[in-house]
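User: We ran a pulldown and think these components assemble together. Before we commit to crystallization trials, I'd like a predicted model of the whole complex to look at. Sequences follow.
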Amino acid sequence: MDLILANHSSYPRIGDSADLQLLRRTIAQRDRGEKSEADVRAAEDRLTEHALREQNDAGLEVVTDGQIRWYDPISHLAGKLEGVRINGLLRFFDTNFYFRQPVVHARPQRTKPLLVEDFAFAKAHSARPVKVVLTGPYTLARHSLESNGGAGGFEKLLAAYTGALGEEIDALAKAGATLIQVEEPTVLRRPEDFHYVERCMTRLALSKGAAKLALSVYFADPSPMYDQLQTLPVDILGLDFTYNPELVDVVASRGSNRTLALGLVDGRNTRLEDAATLARQLERIARGLSGAQVYLTPSCGLEYLPRDRAQSKLQHLSLLKKTFLGSRG
Amino acid sequence: MSRKKLQQLGISLPVLPTTSVGSFPKPDFLVAARAEFAKKKITREELGKTERRATEFWIRQQEELGVDVLVDGEMYRGDMVAYFAEHLEGFQVGGLVRSYGNRYYHKPIISGEVRWKGPITVDWWKYAQSLTPKPVKGMLTGPYTVMDWSFVESYPDRRAACLALAQEIRKEVEALIKAGAKIIQIDEPATSVRPEELSTAIEAMHVVTDGLPAYFITHICYGAFENIYPGMLDLPVDNFDLEMSNSGLDMLALFKKHRYTKDISFGVVDVHTHVIEEKPVVVERLRQALDVIPQDAIWVDPDCGLKTRTVNEAIAKMRVCVEAAQALRDRQAEKAGR
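Assistant: Here's a predicted model for the assembly, 667 residues in total across the polymer chains.
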């Protein structure tokens, strides 16, 4: 089995040293009128380079841009669409992280590229393949508010977000993205909405071109909808293993007809898991899989951790791979 | 209704007593002193003196406004969880993590066995109480929130960490009671975040408060309250201090469906806006509360801590709380006199 080490999505955009605090400093200076938007962009570039370098140094084979430029997983994309205003803060799931809620006053439309430029920068500065990550249309829609008629109701809002992200995925694939990850954590909390995600992913799959399309679900136990997730038209399915230890047995017993991205390493807590225990879980999963490839990732984005711990988690992925391969002789 | 309990504790309060949630903005002289301290230009003792001066400032402000149950304003705290993490054994200061946008904080790590080393807030409570004859609330962060807002490394799971913290926080509550505190607020803003863990929060609050002679308040905010109501009524406290105005009083609809059975510190002003509510707006919010909750059970306060507002905004927000409560008391006195 080919084990590929990959980052999940986000990475800390701050650290303890002065150079790792450049972005925070520059944004504060911009807010006081002392720096320009171009200065902020340059600081984002520097922190993106740091993130790419640290992922590379940790031995990852697939990296992300760390979503260094993202204000949060919701408003960063929604706020770039016409018809959407950004409002006050709300808690993001059960984290201590807050996002700004999009308020939709007209049908959301993509009038400019959302992530293409960021992808081009990351690709140009990385020795490893760069995975592009987008929050999915269903999760965006469930975190948005419609005002003055908005998009005309939830289904129309969902269709509009799906259309906009489909255009973006098409543009990303044309710009050379080989792996595009769509994130739909909300569906795990609302399993009755699975049909919406099915509809979105079917539409988005039409836009992927030569790229591989991944779906990632996290922040809850995916085992109750594991069989449904297996029916989606995606190449890779990313799962969070930290909410239910029995998910290992679910996957081991049912196998998978999709390449899996295994979120065995907890991206929400600083504690480092015992590598031998994780390797045994991986061994059990591997016995149930016939596929040639498996991705090893953190369970979610690493922005919820301090930088030193985020680095440790990535290094832990390498250790897990070594331990697993060592146990197989 | 726990007015009887208050009387047993020797506390007599007017109808619709006014209070605040806990934090007030730090006056400029304290902000400056904290910056000096961070640069190591003044000593811890010098900073402490300035914190005491700021505490006195807020006690005087509350007295002048006519607030009934006072707070020390938390001039000595940076963050409501980090402060306790710094004073309990078993914690490590974690690196920076993002809270939102360009805001970051040091999220504590529970890396050992948590242990109460000695009084944390007692001297501050004693000092604040020495400045006023009015009751001053003892103020703590509860075990569930300290656990939820920390990384848990040294306990097998979240529940174990939470219950261990509860045992230690109870010691602080006992120390406050021993010092003379009769009203103690145990803030649990994280309670509503994981409804599946409400039973853990309740179990922990039992550990903290059971059998202790004080009137207990808990503050909960940022809520998906619909997910934990009415189950949250099982938290063993006398009074829920709730963010009501920020959500358009929509919790009142829940209270109509399932009777609200405790005292409430009813948030009548939104702390997330610079706009100072007009008195008639606040009176109307209180009037709506009175339609659903017995008058004797209602206390009046802002939605949440006021530390994110300016000093003048915080004073103006408190003033409108007091004036609205007084307007309703006057209205009732008028009716009674007719």
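The first strand of chain B starts at residue 88 and ends at 92. That may be worth checking against your pulldown data before setting up trials.

User: Thanks, that helps.
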